[in-house]
TrEMBL record:
GO biological process: proteolysis
Alphabetical list of SMART domains matching this protein: Tryp_SPc
Keyword list, A-Z: Disulfide bond, Hydrolase, Protease, Signal
Signal peptide start-end: 1-20
UniProt-listed InterPro entries: Peptidase_S1_PA (IPR009003), Peptidase_S1_PA_chymotrypsin (IPR043504), Trypsin_dom (IPR001254)
One Gene Ontology molecular-function label: serine-type endopeptidase activity
Highest taxon, organism lineage: Eukaryota
Protein name, UniProt field: Trypsin-like protease
């Protein structure tokens, strides 16, 4: 299982992975697995930043079905264009007070060219982006990832 490295903060014995869960209040169609090992990228330097990726090894593989499928990854070196879909349980609030959903949320956003995103976010100062980041738009704001969405596809 791929996740964000900054999410790998608890010992494996205290963590489980769940697939197929779409409603926090239910378990119908979901599968749970214990975690046997967690690994952060060797170049990860902490916090949200470059190489913020980790791998979780499961005690047993998930059984794929119509509700549980692997994420399709591009070939190495391929820069994806078009759109990207984010899934998450993060806050849906537009204020500083978090509002956590009971249902899995999803949004599809256009992928923005790295140079355009870097120019927009860098402004007069240093850009917070690394070449390992993916940038989605629009750059003027709107629905996006929020607190609680870390580690999701």
């Amino acid at each position: 299982v791929f996740t964000a490295a900054h999410c790998l903060v608890y010992p494996s014995l205290l963590v489980s992975a769940v697939a197929g869960l779409h409603n926090v209040g239910g378990t119908s169609g979901s599968q749970s697995r214990s975690v046997s090992k967690q690994t952060q990228h060797s170049k990860y330097g902490g916090d949200v930043g470059p190489y913020d990726i980790g791998i979780i090894a499961l005690s047993k593989a998930f059984d794929f079905n119509d509700k549980i499928q692997p994420v399709a990854l591009p070939a190495s070196g391929v820069i994806h264009s078009g759109s990207a879909t984010l899934y998450g349980w993060g806050s849906t609030s537009t204020t500083s007070t978090a509002s956590m959903p009971k249902l899995l949320q999803t949004v599809t956003k256009p992928i923005i060219e790295y140079s355009a995103c870097e120019a927009h976010l860098g402004g007069a100062g240093a850009s917070p982006l690394a070449d390992t980041n993916i940038c989605t738009g629009p750059l003027t704001g709107g629905i996006s990832a929020c607190s609680g969405d870390s580690g999701v596809p």
